[in-house]
Amino acid sequence: MKLKSLMMAVALAATALTALAAGAPVEVDNAWVRATVKGQMATGAFMTLTSDHGGKLVGVSSPAAAVVQVHEMKMEGGVMKMGEVKGGLDLPAGKAVALQPGGFHIMMMDLKAPLAASTTVPLTLIVKDDQGIESKVDVQVPVAVKAPKATKGAAHADSMNHAAHGKPAAMDRAAHGAQHGASHAQ
Ligand SMILES: [Cu+2]
Predict the structure, then answer these.
(1) Could you give the CA distance from residue 19 to residue 27 in angstroms, rounded to a whole number?
(2) Cα(2) to centroid of ligand 1, in Å?
């Protein structure tokens, strides 16, 4: 039964990702939500977002939480601070933006019920494109205790972004191709 529900979750996630690949405002990869225990009121959702033409993640909602915000964690005067990203999260054209523990993340607060591993949580991403047009992207996000093995280059997305600074766009595309190759090999 447990295996069946897990497979169901995987199937749902795969369906969501396939739908997004075809001309959606943003591509969502490696999405997961950290599982919670009873009494825990907040958790984080993580994913890699890629917008072909550039845009902004301006909002997120979920029926599982009363408040959902895009957050950033950063060091301020030697103290790790977490706060809402004002004005939306920039999604530069063609560049994978990693939302991961310790950096950008989606904060789900005032959870209505604990989120158990091997279930899924619906999230609606509100993305504003380069023309200023907002669209909603629905994703079924798997719940897990820790980050699942990346299926598409998310594990090193942060360091790759740093390495990519100042390099021509062609390099980014080459890296992207390599990620596709890696995911096929799995
Ligand atoms: Cu947060």
Answers:
(1) 9
(2) 30
